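Project standup — Tuesday

K.O.: blocked on the structure for the chain from last sprint. Re-posting the sequence here as requested.
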Amino acid sequence: MFPRLDLGHGVGLRSRHYGEFLESQPKVDWLEAISENFMGTGGRPLAVLDKVRVDRPVVLHGVSLGIGSVDPLDEQYLKEWKQLIDRIEPAMVSDHLCWGRYQGRYSHDLLPMPFTEEAIGHVVSRVQAVQDRLKRQLVLENVSSYLTYPASTMSEAEFTAEVARRADCGLLVDINNIYVSAKNHGFDPKAYIDAMPLEHVAQFHLAGHFNRGDLIIDTHEGHIIDEVWQLYAYAVERLGRVPTLIEWDTGVPDLETLLAEAEKARVLEYETFERANAEAEKVMLG
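H.V.: unblocked you, prediction finished:
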């Protein structure tokens, strides 16, 4: 079980906006910082992170843990990550449910897992090792995918939920990634959300993507499309109020545009609960 935090709606801390966060206090509930950008380093980036964590909650989000890889866990990486965590004291620490390392080589991509019992056991043991090292629960994010494995014996949603249950970790439910993978592989995105164990859902992500017709590519660029907003509303209705982040990592816009997307998510969450409450009241009144 992962404790549900009431963080509200946040955005990613990106270098384009460092100056604004150093000179003022932009109105945003919380910020996500990419762990690797601040590990084993100092200077201006770390000074910015030190400042913003005083004003609002910060979440550290990693991209290279490789929790599903078969290579041994990177001890130097874990050491530097733990040092950053101890310094920043983030509200959550997260990475991706994927693999990306093999025989000492790093693919620089978030590669999907085969959905098998063997893979569940492998990931769970590594999650438990990382959690023991960090002295806190890990939050794992579902990734966008463009391939599947013949060896898989269950759906991605079943696999993801079972990993969370057995490892007792949190889940970062990326709504855009679900939409992208559902379109690429032909599954029902709402059924995926239905399968998520409520007691483990720790965070939502929303982002833009590139649709080239025969394939949708997760680019974290551009405004969130209507279909993803609708899927977010469904997730809020099914899973409740969950800390929500707007991701925009390619062609990063001005901060005002980014914060407007976060506000749109806040309004949609509020309207979803208002509608649900009105419908429940109507049923009670007959």
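K.O.: great, moving the ticket to review. The longest strand covers residues 105-111. The radius of gyration is 19 Å.
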